[in-house]
Amino acid sequence: MTTPGNKDADGPTLVVGLGNPGPRYAGNRHNVGFLVADELADRVGGKFKRHKSGADIAEGRLDGNRVALAKSRSLMNLSGGPVAGAVRFYKVAPESVIVIHDELDLSYGAVRLKRGGGENGHNGLRSISKSLGTRDYLRVRFGVDRPPGRMDPADYVLRDFSRAERSELGFFVDRCADAVSALVGKGLEAAQNEFH
């Protein structure tokens, strides 16, 4: 069993980036978890490959710590099954899983880390909580801001980042990947102190 911040653990830390598969969704705000997972895969020199869990998995070392990066091949609302499959395969405690997701209640580009809590209407988190039987997993929340005016939040997160947002997106994705790396290597409290 692996606990973030424990360099002597036997297995990898499971890091899940949430998003919807396929080119139709690639630039959506809802897919920021995939973008951060892709950046992390570049850092560890791993390539995502189909896995029997129902996720695409890339493995490697992030600042010396073993990680398995996962992106579900199912739609966001059904992420829980593939995540639970990866948890079983790697024999990881649900409390040690790190999930990267978009967050409406944070300003654009803000990064916050926490353990547990509610799903706040996020169907990907709801699916994972149901499949793991617990909400007590680690969250890396990437702010995408609230929708303008009366726009439905569900429509907003399924729209691409604006041109202005895209100009800063690479910087914010990189910073979020740094936060994940700190969480894996140093644990929750130290990573919060560094990035909050």
Automatic annotation (TrEMBL):
Keywords, comma-separated and alphabetical? Cytoplasm, Hydrolase, RNA-binding, tRNA-binding
Show the Gene3D superfamilies listed in the entry: Peptidyl-tRNA hydrolase (3.40.50.1470)
- Residues flagged as site, Stabilizes the basic form of H active site to accept a proton: 102
Any idea which residues are catalytic in this one? 30 (proton acceptor)
UniProt catalytic activity: an N-acyl-L-alpha-aminoacyl-tRNA + H2O = an N-acyl-L-amino acid + a tRNA + H(+)
Query: An example Gene Ontology cellular component term from the record?
Result: cytoplasm
The record lists tRNA as bound by 25, 77, 123
Which GO BP terms, alphabetically?
protein quality control for misfolded or incompletely synthesized proteins; rescue of stalled ribosome
Function in brief: Hydrolyzes ribosome-free peptidyl-tRNAs (with 1 or more amino acids incorporated), which drop off the ribosome during protein synthesis, or as a result of ribosome stalling.
Instruction: Please give the subunit comment from the record.
Output: Monomer.
User: Its family?
Assistant: Belongs to the PTH family.
PANTHER family from the UniProt entry: PEPTIDYL-TRNA HYDROLASE
What is this protein's name? Answer: Peptidyl-tRNA hydrolase
Its gene is: pth
